[in-house]
């Protein structure tokens, strides 16, 4: 999953530590979220959405597949 957390944080002039305090998580969690190494739980995604005043789908979206990667059919 990709996200716009860093962009939203930067727009507010917040450090990763500041965002972590607002969300009641560690700074390391914010780093992992921003780099896409960690997908948030649904409750955390809602807290992020509420904090930034944007719908979840405006912050989080599926990772794009490389153009040459085949699409799996069900």
What does it look like?
By secondary structure, this protein is mostly helical. It has helices spanning 5-12, 16-23, 27-34, 42-52, 56-59, and strands spanning 2-3, 60-61. It has a two-stranded antiparallel ribbon with strand order 1-2. Helix 2 (16-23) packs across helix 3 (27-34). The relative contact order is 0.20.
Which keywords apply here?
single chain; 74 residues; mainly alpha; two-stranded antiparallel sheet; 53% helix
Brief synopsis:
With 74 residues, the chain is mainly alpha-helical.
CA distance, first residue to last residue: 20 Å
The dominant shape is elongated
- Work out the number of β strands: 2
Structural class estimated from helices and strands: mainly alpha
State the order of secondary-structure elements, H for helix, E for strand: EHHHHHE
Helix content: 40-55%
Give the topology, please.
Elements: E1 2-3, H1 5-12, H2 16-23, H3 27-34, H4 42-52, H5 56-59, E2 60-61
Antiparallel strand pairs: 1-2
């Amino acid at each position: 999953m990709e996200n716009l957390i860093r962009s939203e944080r930067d727009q507010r002039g917040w450090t990763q530590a500041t965002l972590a305090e607002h969300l009641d998580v560690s700074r390391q969690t914010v780093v992992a979220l921003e780099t896409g190494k960690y997908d948030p739980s649904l409750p955390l995604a809602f807290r992020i959405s509420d904090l930034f005043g944007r719908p979840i789908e405006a912050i989080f979206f599926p990772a794009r597949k490389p153009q040459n990667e085949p699409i799996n059919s069900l």
